[in-house]
Design goal:
Ring cyclization and eight-electron oxidation of 3a-(2-amino-2-carboxyethyl)-4,5-dioxo-4,5,6,7,8,9-hexahydroquinoline-7,9-dicarboxylic-acid to PQQ. Belongs to the PqqC family. It is an enzyme of class 1 (oxidoreductase). This is Pyrroloquinoline-quinone synthase. This protein is mostly helical. The chain contains eleven helices and no strands. α3 runs parallel beside α7, α5 runs antiparallel to α10 and α9 packs antiparallel against α10. The model has no long low-confidence stretch (mean pLDDT 96). Bound molecules: pyrroloquinoline quinone.
């Protein structure tokens, strides 16, 4: 029996359609943030919770690399960890995120401690790390393909923050500017790899499901932020406005 898997162009179009329908650029919290309607409490809540995602990205990439038997794949993948951790002197994305934290008036040590992160943020992000650790390599790689859609949202964010919030300046938005070149580099390689290797119907289904799962990881974090800080239903143990401020 022949496998009627769609050609790579059709498969790529399917992946892009998942982003068009489900990526978190469509979430009302992002419209509010980029449109300048967030209060500073809401901005601080976003920075604290999104920190947890940032902090776990290099850990999920290390989990991925621990499973790669191919040195060439590890060589390429390790630049993702370097982008976030950087060198001791200059740092990387993690340090740039903490500059944003300071810029919005938060104590960077408080943010880096992870205290105050909402349970739903933890559950969503931890699920992503576990997915990449446990699922087949094609699915693990495909789950990072949300980055196909990230440069557009980073561009909107830089523009929106600079237009609407006094804390926004080249230093506090540096995290997003760096991602404008880092993400396309990562995603060009990963998309090519997934298109070349997911040639059976089953692999294409698994890759599409992985990308869908990842859009849910991102969306769930913003739903939690909205419920907690826009609607004011802060879960027990989560950050409360006024805590963790820069002195
Ligand atoms: O601000 C965003 O909307 C956004 C989204 C995503 C994404 O699509 O997963 C990432 C990032 N930023 C990001 O900064 C980042 O380093 C990153 C790494 C990954 C990944 O899955 O490996 N996604 C993302």
């Amino acid at each position: 029996m022949t496998d009627q898997s769609p050609n790579p162009q059709a498969f790529e179009a399917r992946l892009r359609q998942i982003g068009a329908e489900r990526y978190h650029d469509r979430h009302p919290f992002h419209h509010r943030l980029h449109g300048g309607q967030c209060s500073m409490d809401e901005v601080q809540a976003w920075v604290i919770n999104r920190w947890y995602y940032q902090s776990r990205i290099p850990m999920k990439d290390a989990a991925f690399m621990s499973r790669c038997t191919d040195p060439q794949l590890r060589r390429i993948w390790r630049s993702r960890i370097e982008d976030h951790d950087g060198g001791e002197a200059e740092g990387g994305g993690i340090r740039r995120w903490l500059k944003l934290a300071e810029g919005v008036g938060l104590d960077p040590d408080y943010v880096a401690s992870g205290r105050g992160v909402m349970p739903a943020t933890r559950f969503a992000v931890d699920a992503y790390v576990r997915f990449v650790r446990d699922e087949p390599l094609i699915a693990a790689m495909a789950s990072s393909l949300t980055e196909l859609f990230a440069p557009a949202i980073h561009g909107q964010r830089i523009e929106g923050l600079l237009a609407h919030y006094p804390f926004a300046n080249p230093e506090t938005t540096a995290y997003f500017r760096h991602r404008l070149t880092e993400a396309p580099k990562d995603v060009a390689f990963t998309l090519r790899w997934v298109l070349d290797h997911a040639t059976s119907r089953a692999d294409q289904e698994a890759a599409a499901a992985a990308l869908t799962f990842k859009t849910e990881v991102l969306w769930a974090q913003l739903d939690a932020l909205w419920h907690g800080y826009v609607e004011g239903s802060i879960p027990p143990g989560a950050w409360r406005p006024g805590e963790g401020q820069l002195r």
